[in-house]
Hints:
Blueprint lengths: L2 H8 L3 H10 L9 E3 L2 H10 L5 H4 L6 E3 L1 H11 L2 H22 L3 H53 L18
Antiparallel strand pairs: 1-2
Amino acid sequence: MLDFDLADIYEVPTKALKQAVKRNMKRFPTDFMFELTINEWKELVTICDQIPETMKHSYIPPFAFTEHGVTMLSSVLRSDVAINASILIVRAFVAVRQLILNPPADRITELERQMLELKQYIIDVFTDQNDINVDTRTQLELINNALAELQKQKQTLNSPRRRIGFKTGEEDTFI
Length: 175
């Protein structure tokens, strides 16, 4: 974890956290904490979108802490917030390590089984849908044929007929 993230968690200014660490460098060997180089910091800024905007323009590279360094910070900062935050962070590091070392095989197997079930379900649904589509197409063809016949019948019924009635004096006028 980087110093500005830890300062945020411990509710102290980053400057105060760095000063406390520098005053107690004997407590932070290189496997607990190290300072990023300028090039590492610039590369991290370009590839990581989680860095706060105020920190992106800093020319002072941050300290990077391991889980042991985070634990050591609680003894350096000496506040209740620092101690509680360190405990939570260490537990998170340990949980991540356990997850990496011992992946939950049962969960993975269960997920694979569920994926196979979903795949089979989708295949069944598409098969049913194709069957329905064939039936539906047949029914639509029958409906279209019936409508075409009705339209023919209507045209024959609507053909011009001879008008019924009496002719008046005018040639095309009927009463």
